[in-house]
Structure formats: structure tokens, C-alpha cells
Amino acid sequence: MRLVGPNGEQVGIVRVEDALRLAEEANLDLVEVAPMAKPPVAKLMDFGKFKYEAAMKAREARKNQVNTVIKEIKLRPKIDPHDYGTKKGHVERFLKAGDKVKVTIMFRGREQSRPELGRRLLERLAEDIAELGFVESAPKQDGRNMIMVIGPTKKKAEAKAEQRRVREQRPATGEEPAADPQTEPQTDGATAGAE
To answer: Against a cut of 0.85, is the pTM above it?
Structure first.
């Protein structure tokens, strides 16, 4: 077998018995790192330390891993202009965060005979958010629904890095971040005065 020393130096091709003796003398473990190689490769190392470092690398890789999330927005073909603006704002927020958005138009009753209304609405939405995202999956009819998937132009990791930069700059300038109405706890007048 080919033997590698504890500091990565090449010892050479040795017999298994000699490698085991060298490992015992150095008070290290003999670990086979490439069993399929010709000849197999083994390394002298502290196996407990090796397992710990491998676990730390795996944890770091999981921490930096980006999970793709698909958010869903549901619309109706005859949506009110103000409601459309609200839904468009949600789509923009999701895309800025680096998430994909699945837009569903729900048809009811006679609306099913007019799929072009839903298609026009989806195309209008795609035009309105063109700078933040692109149409990943074109509008298609799926039973009573019409579905379109929009992907973000920014990757999730880029969006997170940008949010982190903005958060770090705020304390330096002394300005407080604006309150997010969705994260603020809702209180009514009776409980607010009781505190």
C-alpha cells in the first residue's frame, strides 16, 4: 500500500504490517483514504481529529447552503386594481429576497371559458416585475387554475449578502430601520395602555 505521513509527506509503498508498525510507533491511526487506488492509499493520522474536522466542514457547508423556496401568490381573473397592486408588491418582495414565485390564477364557474383573461393578467404581472425576475415557466392551464413560475434575477445568496450589508450600514449611520408591519406585534388600544 502507498503510505502518506501525518503531515502529508509521501512515505512510499510499504507492506501493511510495516504501515501498522509505523502507526503504532507514532501513536496514530492508519486510515485507508483511497481503497480503490492501485495500490490502495493509507494515511497516518489521528482518526478522532479527522472525524471532528470532517463534521465541522459538513456543518459549514450546510450553513452556507441555499435552500430554494417557492412562494405562491393566488389571483382571480377579475382582480381589483388595488388588490393587484398589493399582490404585485408581495411578488416583488419575494423576488428581492431571492425566492421563486408561483403565480396561480383561480378560475370559477363561467370564468373557465375565458382563459385569455388569466393569461393577460399573468403577462401584465411579468412585465411589471421584469427588472426583478423573469418568467421561468410560461403560463399554462392546469384544470381550474392557470400557473406561471417567476424566477429571481438575483441568486438567494446574493440577496442575503445584500440584506446583511444594509443591516450592517444602518447602525453606522445612526438611522433606525423602518418597522415591518408583518413582524410588528399587533396590539389593540386596551392592552397598549395597560403596560
So the answer is: no
